[in-house]
Amino acid sequence: MGRLFVTRRLPIDVRAETAPELDVAVFGEDRAPTRAELIDGARGSQAILTLVSDPVDGALLDALPSVRHVAQVAVGYDNVDVAACRARGVLVTHTPDVLTDATADLTWALLLAVARRVREGEALLRSGRFGGWSPTMLLGVELAGRTLGLYGFGRIGRAVARRARGFGMRIVYCSRSRAPAALEAALEAEAVSFDALLSRSDVISLHAPLSEATRGRFGAAELAAMRPGAILVNTSRGPLVDEAALAAALARGHLFGAGLDVFEREPEVHPALLERDDVVLLPHLGSATEAARQRMARTALTDAVRVLLGEAPRHPIPELS
Ligand code: GLV
């Protein structure tokens, strides 16, 4: 039937969930394979299940001419050179929808942790320096009545907006395309320009894919144009934000704080951010619930098997669908 190479151990038993006639190989270590290991492991495979940590480019595809399908176990696929895949007739699929709620929840975990200084409070308590309730200790930001600005208003941005209603926040968004009027009305979300997003939002949360248009979108000038005391949250892709500029904006007291789940040079984090108390940092946990990660694995696997059987995949990336 064919061979499938999985670049990382997944939270499902991939072999048990596929037909016995399918030859499934899984990279044995719990880390991203090196390029040489990936080529070695995937040799002779028709499909590879990849993760955000696996760069897929023309050189890799040329080294693996049997590969006809890259099944990305993530909704974002900026690690995949889509033009190189298209040029070689290689199909690319991804896993939208199944991680939307998990990622929206984590966005709110970060937002609340920054606004209410959860990390600092916990550290204070554990250090033994908590001397009792104080009317002036670790004062944070109240969210009700404040404006949440969403940069990107796709599945995850909208799920974050739905949660924002429960917190009594006003919602503005800036997106490549306007949401349907009924959805805007239901979420009481207002479409605004990028400049208005910066100047009106008390919290800006990023939910856009990484592309040449979004890379570095939040640099020194844009961060300076944010409201004084605003909060920046990023659970999309690190390179949307210039980390050095963010650290500088925080250092001069322009922003209240930032919550980051993704980094410009992941897994590295800008050292100036690591030193700051007003930044909450997480190791790319957006979709990290057991249920979401299992659904992601199954979605990618199902498409890989469908393609090997000659059927159309259910989740081709938009550029190839
Ligand atoms: C994770 O970052 C994803 O894009 O699914």
Structural account:
This protein is of the alpha/beta class. Helix content is 34%, strand content 16%. The strands form two sheets. The chain has a seven-stranded parallel β-sheet with strand order 8-7-6-9-10-11-12, sandwiched between helices. A five-stranded parallel β-sheet has the order 2-1-3-4-5. α4 crosses α6. The site of glyoxylic acid (GLV) has 7 residues, from loops.
Summarize the entry for a quick read.
The protein has helices at 35-42, 58-63, 82-87, 100-115, 118-126, 155-166, 181-187, 194-200, 220-225, 243-251, 271-274, 290-308; strands at 2-6, 22-26, 47-50, 69-72, 91-93, 147-151, 170-174, 189-191, 203-206, 230-234, 255-260, 279-281. The chain has 321 residues and is of the alpha/beta class.
Order of helices and strands, N to C?
Answer: EEHEHEHEHHEHEHEHEHEHEHEH
Shape descriptor reads globular
Number of strands: 12
Instruction: List bound small molecules.
Output: glyoxylic acid
Specify the number of helices.
12
**Percentage of helical residues?**
25-40%
> Mean pLDDT, rounded to whole units?
97
CATH fold category name of the largest domain = Rossmann fold
- Derived structural class: alpha/beta
